[in-house]
Amino acid sequence: MANLDASSSDVTFKPKPSLPPPPNTVGAIGWIRKNLFSSPLNAFLTILSLYVIWVLVSNVFEWAILNAVWEAETRRECLDKVGLAGACWAGVTHWMKNFIYGRYPDAEVWRINLGFGILILWMAPFWFPRVTGKIAIGASAILISPFLLGYLFAGGEKGLFLQLMISIAITAFIFSWLHVLVCLSSGSTLRNVIVSATGFAAKPDNVQKYPVIALFVVLAVVVFALQGGWQLEEQNTNLWGGLFVTLVISGIGIAVSLPAGIVLALGRRSKMPIIRVFCVAFIELFRSVPLITVLFMAVTMVPLFLPEAINPVKIVQAIIAVCIFSSAYMAETVRGGLQAIPKGQYEAAQALGLSYWKMMTLIVMPQALKLMIPNIVGSFIGLLKDTTLVSIVGLYDLLLMLKAVSQNPQWNGIHTEPLFFGAVLYFVLCFIMSKYSQHLERTLGAGQVRK
Amino acid sequence: MKKLSLLGLGLGMLASLGVTAGEAAAQSTLDIVKQRGVLRCQVGTPAPGFYQLDEQGNWYGSDVAICRAIAAAIFDDPSKVEFQSVTSAVRFTAMANGESDVLSRTTTWTLFRDTQLGLDFTTVNFYDGQGFMVPKDTGIKSSLELKGATVCVLTGTTTELNLTDYSRTNNLDIQPVVFEDSNVRDDTFAKGGCDAITNDKSSLASTRAKFPNPGDYVVLPETISKEPLGPVVRQNDSQWMDIVKWTVFALVQAEEMGIDSSNVEAMAANPANPEMARMLGVEGDLNKGLGLEKDWVVRIIKHVGNYGEIYDEYMGEKGKFAIGIPREGSPNALWTKGGLMYSPPFR
Question: What CATH architecture is B130-225?
């Protein structure tokens, strides 16, 4: 024992260096062996899958790229060149404008582009990390921009109310971007800049807002006066079509369904019987009928009950139907999120003396919404795809436009190519939404990641 | 409350597009149309020959031309038409709820539809009928040779019903292969998925034109059903019904008299006979009962052409958009040439 003790002080145990792993268990070969050929069954499945992928990819490649015809005036030309062996993309490129804008007149298409450009710019500050007041900007984009965009798209006479709302929208847009520029350049806020420039900095807090409001009002009045004589040619909504209509319907559906769904979900959990009964009835009624039924009711049945003097606009009826339907679904998604919040959170909030609305907006909703992101975005994606159903009530959305080409004598029978194009377009849109939701989950869920 | 007001504002765009109120309740369809300044004409989702979209997003086709003719008669402007394109599932509802003023789309005139839907069929502007198409190399010459054959057909249409009726009547034991989508049906047929394809003969012509080698297919001579197609109006407005009906008659009568879009104004200035003078509004007041201007027929022919011109342009073999259905020997020829196109006299 003593011997051991003595030797341990001057001899340390040195393990032999490890041998390198067997060459067939590392690197690409190792990975392949482990993941693809670990057993005879897996080896068989791997080879089968490779074969299926090869057949699919090579055929699609051959049809869509190798044999494809890009330049032609009619489908007959394509058929004469390659028959059915290659895609006739010429038909898709000739009709591209119709797929995107529907039957909107060529000369006025800039209005749609401008509208969507404004919307994107309005939302852009969300992606700038240094900008403050994103909620206000987002709210103004959702609540006020529809007046400006709606007028850009539809045009025609504007009443005083609409002119006022358009002025407010333009002013809000300018304010948002001034604010963003101030944030990005100096890290300050627009409010601080205005307050210090007007010499209100020394005044108490509740007075400081007046110069900001005053500037907003002055700017709005100037815009109001400037756009008095400005009028766009009216574009009947039955000229709207293609991707444009798909985005308008699903965009409004998305923007409305989330707040409406939150209200309905809170109502359903409310302790006030009338509100609860109303919300439960609304949700259950519209969740138990298919969207197509709601659309039919809204578009073809409702006019039967309206007085003759009222001529409802079809796209508006469809949008209302989509909003009602998606709100009912969203309400249940939100309720699921609310139920996931432990009771202790509610009780703690109440113990702090928070009112119902403060408890909801400060404690419960932020946690619940974060949990619900995957489901919410799932509903949004579903909604985007569901809007193809409006083609049945005669709105020329993307799908119906894609189908219309095949009935045109020049492109008689061309239907795989447009639908292929549509599928790719839908995939891109849905994939972007899905990626964005993952990004949101990562940023908002940062606090919950265990490190 | 705050959330609710947010929701209300979110619907702001809807409000701004909104409901266009303010059209006073008017008595007759003609008054409503005149007041609105535009005719609302219902067509279907695009179907070759009858109503289709071009790349610029304009509607054209033979049924579209009827809409334009009515607009020309009322407004002297064939562009004052708002085309409403709805699927066949909602076509009658869209008439019943007042959305459309006239339905001009391939709708077969049947007793049931005429009497039980609150609608009136005006007259026939195209006689269609169901037929069969087979690959030429099968050597089949008559549909009675289709014993035990598989036949591609669209589901949920009278076409399917006619097919089974025909099969039972003639003991053919035909096996229907049903499809939802006409493009898929045609692809299946082209790839040999069925022995024959059945549809209205007008559609068979355009189906044939979409195949890589149209010459390899032949439409069999038999017509197994009657499909008289024509414009439809709401019941109980005889003035409006008369306007639509006589617009079609004017197209036919003009062709019979040799009046077309190029010579109509010369003819009106110097009518060849008393009937032509009455029809073109030079003499008499035939327009009174219709509530239209004296020169309503001149307007129609000037802007849209006569029946023959419309047929050649969209259905026949001459026009740029034509789908190639021969007119000679068909029921769509003038009665003077052995067809069924016949207008009551203008007097």
Answer: 3-Layer(aba) Sandwich (3.40)
